[in-house]
Amino acid sequence: MVKKSTKIQPIYDNNHILSINFSNRNLFLTYASKINGNVIIKRSVGIDKFKNSKKRNIFAFTTCTRNFTKALTDGKVNSVENVNIKGYNKAVVTLLKTIQQKIQIFNLTDITPLMHGGCKQSRPKRK
Asked: What is the pTM of this model?
């Protein structure tokens, strides 16, 4: 019987997107396909055993990104064409520096939705 190899298949094409999402209490890092949206690698601060208020720590963010870049380099990913950042946080610069230590980034886009006042409310009827 032929034994299957357990090696990770190398990913060489540039049809993938790295997205960084900051929520109110967590950080989500995903590496997904552009074409059909299949998630290849997913990481969050909660997966790294940080709970409650310790999730919003820069130390937690950097350990999560180090583990994520380690998983990417184990999968033979050396460069990422598109990086999408969504959300507000002070740690964006440090996260990008830790990612750029091992992975080359070509394009950064900020897809954070901008808040405006909303539509004007209609006047209530008189009684």
From this structure: 0.75
